[in-house]
Hints:
By secondary structure, the chain is an all-alpha fold. The protein contains 9 helices and no strands. Helix 1 (about 5-15) crosses helix 7 and helix 3 packs across helix 7. The protein is globular and about 40 Å long.
Amino acid sequence: MNTPSKQAEQIREISGVNPYKCMKCGKCSASCPSYNEMDIKPHQFVSYVLHENVEALTESKSLWKCLSCFACVERCPRDVKPGKLIDAARQLVLRQRGQEYLSPDEVPELLDPEIPQQLLVSAFRRYRR
């Protein structure tokens, strides 16, 4: 298994983002429509990558609560793009699973009626390739 530093490097590489530019202003979190549902907020996500606390990120519900709407990307004054870091962490988790993806029969039991439709559409756009 990869070390936390190797995983953090992979997240930075996949996302193409430089988390060191973050000035922790919180504008990304303030614009996040899923803020109340997240245990790790977008601005905190950047810090977790910087401090190589990847295990906490990959086990966080925030990883999957993110809508991929990229409101955080648009609001960031330093072009840090927390949403891309979140997406990269998701990809890291999926790559570690290998071929153990969800089957279509497993999806209905995982759906939450409180999840906005935007999440489903975003996921469809992202993973249909």
